[in-house]
Structure formats: structure tokens, C-alpha cells
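[AMINO ACID CHAIN]
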Amino acid sequence: MDCAYGNSPTDVAWRESRAYHRYRSFQKTTRAAAIGMVASLIALTSIVVLQPRFGGAELLLAVVLLVVALAGCLIVFAAGQLVLHRHERERTGKPDLFWSLLRRIEDHPPRGWIRSLVGPKVRAGTVVRVRSAGEILATLDDEGATDGIPFMPEMWKYCGRTFQVHRVVDKINDWSGRTGTGLRGLKGFVTLGNVRCDGCAHGGCQAECQILWHERWLVQGKQAGERIRPVDEAIHPRYKVVTCGTRRAARGRPAYKCQITELVRASRPLQPWDIRQDLRPLISGNVDLAAFLVAVLTAMFNAVQRLRGGMGYPMMPPQRSSGPTPSDDLGLQRGEKVVVQDKEHIGRTLYRSRNRGLWFGAETLRFCGQAFQVRNRVERMIDESTGEMVFPKTPFIVLETATSTGEFLRFCPQNEYVYWREIWLKRC
């Protein structure tokens, strides 16, 4: 498996690097699976051909055990080959495989045979129209919410417009850690295209969270293409009441109520053993079969690696042994083109996988070495656990199309932007 690397200075440096020796962990597991596969196949063939003088039940048990061992080794071998391929793409600066597949799905949502399984339910790729303000007001409670998720002032301007469903939101991740449960279930919500909150009614928050839309706020099918007359605010007295009732007091400072602050209350805990949360994204069209298999096989390989004490994919780079972590101010602004530094460089800025409080992990590793355009410089955002506006001492950088994929969170569909430190980037 080392034949892909020659004697060039680059390849020699790669073989001598610490990353290469960790990479050998992938090779060892893959080779062991190949040996186990061949051994199981030989033993199974011997039993069938030679027909040893076992009893009927003993022969059947031996065959079943060998078939299971063969299937297990085959899966681990296929997963190992996939991980080696992903690692090679990462090393040579090619886009991450899962992220590339997910981008393809966003441009061409999967349809076909799966539609017959879900019937008329909304799924990724479905064309919908946002209902009129009057229709939506009829679905809201006294707090301006449906099933616990508020219809925010930033959303009224989309009434009457037609969109394509981006993802069906079956779960969310409790980033705040308030519940300590991680993934939590949500039902009846979707996201539309790249419709994001601009923060105009929430103190100018720059987080640009993707807006959640309840299915009751949408119309699909033939009615989705119908044009409706823009609603007159004067017709609906509650219109202004709902849109301005977004602030509440906390510790003497203004705090805000938005969708992101209400997610935990509106969701329910998910049991880790419930595999339905892995299958729903496939049925709803959030991922296609290729992306699903890539993520599942990678997860299986990582599970085997944990059992034998090997390295998981993706591999985190070596980090600092102590803090504080360094910072840099490049003065990056919207529209500038940048390249994400390689992970060995980024590792030297991390202590316990953080740089000045900002996490660097699997979702950011996949973008190392890739070129992007700066979308925004985040200097203020709402804290989802308290609702208060926070002003980071070191601004975050947001890059176009660099969003979380949910691969390592059981296909969590929250398509939020990944935050970057400027020391992790360099101008093209």
C-alpha cells in the first residue's frame, strides 16, 4: 500500500512525518481485515468441499460463524479502503469526499423510488411556498411560536415566496450543553435553500443561522406555484405585536429570544441506541445512498480502531502542551479569497483542540488546504444558552460554503457556518 509514494523530497518528508506513522494505523487494520477475509473464505470452502464428519447442527453452526466472520472482515476491509482513500484526498489537497457528495446533493436533491416510501411528506428538494402573513399568524401561539419555535421578524419578508426545501430537520445538536444530552429530536421543521437570519431584529447578530420553517407555514404541491397578493400589515393587528415582542430582560442586560435560543425547549432527547435517527436523513433526502455509505463505513472503521487502540479518521494534528494559544489579525474582510492552513500548522495554535475558546475538530479538519471566499467577520452574536449578545475578543471569520455537514453527529442537518480564527487562514 506504500507504492503510491516515491522518492521525491515531498514523499520522503511525508514518510518521515508523524502523520505518516499514524496513517500506518489505518493500513494495519485494513491488512488485518484482508487476512481475516481470506482465512474465513478458505475455511468456509474447506468445510463445504471436504464435508468433515461433523453433526448436522455443528456443521451449520461452523458455516454460520464463518459467514459472519467473512462478512465482518469484508466490511472492515471496504471501510479501511475508503478511509485510506479519504486520507489520500486530504493529503493531496482534494476536497473531502463526504462534503463533495453533500454539495452534489444540494444541487441535485435525490428523488425517484424513495418518494413512494414517504408519500406526500415534505423532503429535500420539494418545492414549497411560504404562506401569507395572515395564514401564518393563525398558526402561532401567544408567544409567536409554533411547537415552541418562534416565527421571527426576519422571516416575514419571505411570505408568499417559493423555495426548494434544503433539508428536513429531524434533530438538532445542543451546542450549549445545557441538557448534556447532545443530539435532540425535532419534528415538523425544514430549512429552505440558503435562507438565513440577518439579525436585523435581534441587535444585529451576525451568526447567520439557517432559519427553521414549520411545515404548517408552508404549502407544497400545485398550490406552491400560485402567486398571492402581499399582505397589508394593517389587516392583521397581531402582525406588529408578534414581530416586536422579541426582547426579554436578563441580569439587567437586554437578551433576545430567537429560534436558536428556543431549540432545546422545543426538542426532545434522543436515545443513542435508536438507529432510526440514522435512517431518517436517508429517507428524507438529506443524504443520498453514496454519502450515507461513506459516513456509515467511516464510522464502522473508527469503531474498530477504538476497539484495537488505533487512530480514528480524521486524525487530529499534534497540539501545544500548554496555553495560552497564539492569535493573528489579518484584517480579513468580506469578499477576500483565503486558503485554510494545513492541519499541522493549525495544530501548533491549539491547546486541547481549542484556540482562545474556539473549537477545532472533525468538521473543520475537512477544509484544510481548501480555498474559500470570506463571507463575514463576526464581531457580535447571540449566546444561545442565555439569549444575551456577546462580543468575542477575537472576531470569528465565516467562509462561503464552509458549513458543518453533520457526518460525525449522525447526519445532524443543522447547516451552520464553521467559525475560523484568522491564524488558521492565509490570503491567496
